[in-house]
UniProtKB/TrEMBL annotation:
Plastid in keyword set: no
Keyword terms, alphabetized: Membrane, Transmembrane, Transmembrane helix
Annotated organism of origin: Enterococcus canintestini
Identification of the protein by name: DUF624 domain-containing protein
Annotated transmembrane regions: 20-40, 75-93, 99-123, 135-165, 171-189
Pfam families recorded: DUF624
Amino acid sequence: MVSSGIQRLFYVVWMIIKLNLYFVLFTLMGGVLFGAGPAFQTMTDLLMEHGIDYQQVTFKGFMSQWRKNFKRSNVHFLLFAGISFFLGYNLYLSAQIQGLLWLVIDFVLVFVLLLLTVFYLYVTQYETKYEITHFNLFKLAFVSVFLNFSAFLKVLFGLISILVLTWFFKGLLLFATFALIAVWSGFATKDNRFMVARKLAQHG
């Protein structure tokens, strides 16, 4: 039992390292801006398809899926990045101004940015599972964000924990951070996604 537990831990750790290295490589191959979205989507696809079976994740397979995801995933990621940049810049400007009203605006902008991040994670999860239009994909992800507030908090708790850990151990950016985000988002949104799948099946 102990041996199998250690072996499973090794599989999980190596899968995370392997996926993260591929993510960094393919993000750079896409010039960062055009590589990150397809690379993150590909990580999500492979995790949902193969779990912790690291032997199924190969350079050739990652490249093939990355190319397949390139156009649609860049639409999702660039839209998310553009809105996030706009909100982040406005947050930066409002933070320079003192006053209760501006403090409230700061909190609202931070909350919207958090909502947008969770929304994007749902988009990547549903993109793996369903072949639907951009509009329906976004609608499904938007509804899922508000299905269960505890799930929303669970996603945020994991993300913040990963980012704080990365802040103290910068090497995780190369070996674990992005894969951990993909793994955690899949785990934390699982119940909501199953709920959505059941409702879709009932109305299908």
